[in-house]
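Entry 0007
Protein: CoA pyrophosphatase
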Amino acid sequence: MKGRHPGCPHFMHDRGSPVGRRRSGLIVQLSATCRSSVEGEDMGSDESASNTGCAQVSTGSPQTLLNAIVRGVESHGIPAGTDWPTAKQTLADNDGQWKFSAVLVAIVARREPTILLTIRASDLSEYSSHVSFPGGRPAESDRDIGTTALREAFEEIRLAPDAVRVVGSLPIHKTRKRNHAIFPVIGIVPETARWEAAPAEVTEIFEFPFAVLLNPDLLRQYTDGERVGAWYWAEQVQDIWGVTALILRSLAGLVRDAMR
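Output (structure tokens):
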């Protein structure tokens, strides 16, 4: 598995694994090295945290962080109730070649908030085995970008739409190589919510700690190879890069600004 680091906290949906603590339809797996940090205890020196890949930053109370998320998205984002014809007009270079979609960036309101991420099935035609958010193209019946994100999340990870407090959408994110134009819809879900991978589309669901997201030292760019210039999150269990990393980078920036 690319990017695997034995010291980093890994929150993984795994119905077959006896390891971890079951919470709301998932197994929460923590390495012994990182458990104290993830559970809010003093881990020790900054060097220790950095060397294990668990380097985090203080986010204050969960409610403070959630409030900052709402402020940031509402101040700089797009209403999730924006209908698709209007949403498409926000793309200045809309030459008809773009494939529009919406994804759900689901933030789990735990004591240490996390973000739900998935690993796509290995036999999908695009982005197979990549880390991503649940999402996809709009259906004819979808009235707005938020509806698309919620519908796709239910199809891919069985997350009930009524369990999500939709905040808004980040500005559109593009992948020029494959002409995808993506609306990242931000939603907050309680830790009591349930989710489960739909095997045809998702092989795994895991949680990415928000405190790691806000650590700027872990966000980097490839300097060579086929991924040169692409953003990625270093020292993580999973290989978080490309447009997924770019969306996370945008969210982190909005939240940092809102917390100042």
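Curator remark: DSSP finds seven helices and 13 strands in the chain. The longest helix spans residues 242-259.
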